[in-house]
Design brief:
The protein is an alpha+beta fold. It has 4 helices and 4 strands. The chain folds into 2 domains: 81 residues; 45 residues, Thrombin, subunit H. It has a 4-stranded antiparallel sheet, with no helix packed on it. The longest helix is centred in the middle third of the chain and has 35 residues.
Length: 143
């Protein structure tokens, strides 16, 4: 594990701790809510209800902050677990997942429907159905 990967993992742990703390504070604020419908629905300004609404607003803000921190922690954790060559291994797995044959109709992700003219190791030579032009496309970007 490189130094940068270690830093990302440490930041992810800190973000997750922040998220847990914010979520616990929000749950504490929401635990003692007044659920009496008559109290909640009375007309006019009632100071106790205003405080209750403010407390609920703070709790919702804390829950939103916890969600953001958890998302950042998940992203940092994914970055810390990523290694050189992972993307190429994923592309190679996508290439190996299907058996391509000449004359087969495929969907090139960027260009749409196409017919396979030639099958290479990593690429396909395709004739585009819409324009009639030919392109070479990576097997990983065809369905």
């Amino acid at each position: 594990m490189t130094a940068q990967h270690t830093l990302w993992a440490d930041r992810a742990d800190r973000r997750q701790a922040q998220a847990d703390k914010a979520r616990a504070a929000a749950e504490a604020l929401l635990a003692n809510r007044n659920r009496d419908w008559a109290f909640v629905s009375q007309p006019g300004h009632i100071p106790a209800r205003a405080r209750e609404n403010a407390r609920t607003d703070r709790a919702m803000g804390l829950l939103a902050a916890a969600k953001v921190a958890e998302d950042k922690a998940a992203n940092l954790r994914a970055m810390s677990e990523r290694r050189a060559g992972d993307a190429e291994r994923e592309r190679q797995a996508a290439r190996d997942a299907r058996d391509w044959t000449v004359g087969q109709t495929v969907i090139a992700i960027l260009y749409g429907p196409a017919t396979v003219l030639k099958v290479n190791t990593k690429t396909l030579r395709l004739r585009l159905d819409r324009t009639g032009g030919t392109i070479t496309e990576d097997k990983a970007r065809c369905k």
